């Protein structure tokens, strides 16, 4: 791990010097590249990750503003059946645990296309979405009837929401904490928006799994931070929010769901899971710089193995295509320098992506039906966190001897 200089920590403002990995110059991973854009200059930005030696927040210093990242955001959560099932299960859990009824307000930060709030709304529970992406927020209101405020969340937005809707009884944030450039303003806003006696739940990929399973492709410009439970607890402590429970989840390659409340809320005692995970992270060394030293070399070796596979496959005249057009796939392809010389096309169920091209690599995005017409030899699953769902839906490729390829944590070929 090299010592470099790159600004100050997103949380504690300590000087950042310790590089975890450098993924080179990358385009914005969720950019829509249309046919008419193929011959235009495409902005690329450095993608480097550091760890703060004081608070151990792992972070990518912001090099592009959130307004640019989300101006034409193309990620719709509802196009994954696995994710919808996860959301529905969470709603049943939350209603029971937090005694949510028709007199309570449930608000979700980064509510996307209404994928989760729709399940609360179907039970007559008042809901409010907050999301900065105009197109997606409009879709949530038009298609799913989810009232959505088109705003970036922070303390100022929280003040507006409280004045307009009152405070939230349940405040949800799934896979948003990493997207926040100013973590202090964000958590301060949650503190203000949360009603006394209310609860916050947030889900995010666990840093332990990113490091242990070499999930470098989950690093991209819209992910400003990568969290251990220990660091998140310190951040919430600063704003008098108590983490009273934590659960491990299988989503996104290994996530955790934290539960928070106002400090001093005696109705929510701290569960043993909190103490156990803090102890575990300390024992494996997540609060030391040594823990992060070997990650960059693991990333490089994965790149070598992916390129070795693709070179060998193409030399044998095999057709390789991609499945999915996720942000993580774009980080992977651009870091490895993969273009249409290796992957003919990719497919995605999201119609908002079909007909466009992947940023950087300019690999065309097609409807999944194209797989049956072209009968590829290999299907590289870019959203590897959904591999079970994708393999099940596309098991027919075995009819012509097609195989699935999983790139992370180790390149694996599945017959």
Which terms would index this structure?
Rossmann fold, 7-stranded mixed sheet, 17 strands, 6-stranded mixed sheet, alpha/beta, 2 domains
Topology:
Blueprint: E1 18-26, E2 45-51, E3 58-59, H1 66-69, H2 81-97, E4 106-109, H3 117-121, E5 127-130, H4 134-144, E6 148-149, H5 155-165, E7 168-174, H6 183-193, E8 194-205, H7 207-212, E9 225-226, H8 229-238, E10 241-249, E11 255-262, H9 272-284, H10 295-315, E12 320-323, H11 327-336, E13 346-347, E14 365-366, H12 370-374, E15 378-381, H13 387-393, E16 403-406, E17 412-414
Parallel strand pairs: 4-5, 4-7, 5-6, 7-8, 12-13, 12-15, 13-14, 15-16
Antiparallel strand pairs: 1-2, 2-3, 3-9, 8-11, 10-11, 16-17
Helix pairs in contact: 5-6
Helix and strand element order: EEEHHEHEHEHEHEHEHEEHHEHEEHEHEE
Could you tell me how far the N terminus lies from the C terminus, measured between alpha carbons in angstroms? Answer: 37 Å
Structural class: alpha/beta
Could you say what the CATH topology of the largest domain is called? Rossmann fold
The rounded Rg comes to 21 Å
The number of strands is 17
Structure explained in plain terms:
With 415 residues, this protein is an alpha/beta fold. The chain folds into 2 domains: 77-285, Vaccinia Virus protein VP39 (Rossmann fold); 295-414, 3-Layer(aba) Sandwich (Rossmann fold), CATH 3.40.50.720. It is built from 13 helices and 17 strands. It has helices spanning 66-69, 81-97, 117-121, 134-144, 155-165, 183-193, 207-212, 229-238, 272-284, 295-315, 327-336, 370-374, 387-393; strands at 18-26, 45-51, 58-59, 106-109, 127-130, 148-149, 168-174, 194-205, 225-226, 241-249, 255-262, 320-323, 346-347, 365-366, 378-381, 403-406, 412-414. The strands form 3 sheets. The chain has a 7-stranded mixed sheet. It has a 6-stranded mixed sheet with strand order 14-13-12-15-16-17. The chain has a 4-stranded antiparallel sheet with strand order 1-2-3-9. Helix 5 (155-165) packs parallel to helix 6 (183-193). The longest helix has 21 residues, at 295-315. It is globular and about 65 Å long.
């Amino acid at each position: 791990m090299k010592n470099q200089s790159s600004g100050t920590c997103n949380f504690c403002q300590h000087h950042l010097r310790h590089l975890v990995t450098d993924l080179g110059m990358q385009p914005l991973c969720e950019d829509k590249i249309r046919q008419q854009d193929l011959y235009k200059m495409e902005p690329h930005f450095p993608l480097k990750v550091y760890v703060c030696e004081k608070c151990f927040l792992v972070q990518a210093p912001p090099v592009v503003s959130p307004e640019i990242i989300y101006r034409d955001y193309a990620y719709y959560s509802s196009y994954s059946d696995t994710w919808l099932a996860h959301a529905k299960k969470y709603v049943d859990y939350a209603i029971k645990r937090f005694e949510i009824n028709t007199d309570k307000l449930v608000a979700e930060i980064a509510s996307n296309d209404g994928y989760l709030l729709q399940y609360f709304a179907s039970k007559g529970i008042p809901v409010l979405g907050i999301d900065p992406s105009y197109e997606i927020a409009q879709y949530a209101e038009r298609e799913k009837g989810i009232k959505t405020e088109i705003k970036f969340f922070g303390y100022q937005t929280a003040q507006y929401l409280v004045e307009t809707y009152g405070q939230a009884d349940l405040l949800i944030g799934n896979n948003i904490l990493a997207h926040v450039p100013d973590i202090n303003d964000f958590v301060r806003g949650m503190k203000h928006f949360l009603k006394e006696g209310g609860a916050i739940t947030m889900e995010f990929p666990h840093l332990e799994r990113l490091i242990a399973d070499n999930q470098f492709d989950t690093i991209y410009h819209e992910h400003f931070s990568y969290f251990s439970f220990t660091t998140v607890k310190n951040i919430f402590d600063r704003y008098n929010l108590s983490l009273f429970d934590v659960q491990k989840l299988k989503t996104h390659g290994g996530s955790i769901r934290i539960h928070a409340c106002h400090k001093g809320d005696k109705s929510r005692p701290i569960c043993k899971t909190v103490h156990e995970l803090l102890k575990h992270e300390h024992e494996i060394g997540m609060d030391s710089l040594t823990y992060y030293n070997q990650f960059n070399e693991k990333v490089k070796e994965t790149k070598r193995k992916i390129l070795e596979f693709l070179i060998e496959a193409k030399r044998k005249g095999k057709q390789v295509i991609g499945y999915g057009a996720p942000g993580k796939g774009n980080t992977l392809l651009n870091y490895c320098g993969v273009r249409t010389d290796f992957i003919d096309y990719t497919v995605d169920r999201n119609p908002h992506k079909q007909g466009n091209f992947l940023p950087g690599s300019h690999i065309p995005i097609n409807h999944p039906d194209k797989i049956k017409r072209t009968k590829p030899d290999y299907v590289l699953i870019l959203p590897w966190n959904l591999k079970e769902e994708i393999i099940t839906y596309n098991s027919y490729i075995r009819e012509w001897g097609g195989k699935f390829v999983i790139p992370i944590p180790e390149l694996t070929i599945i017959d």
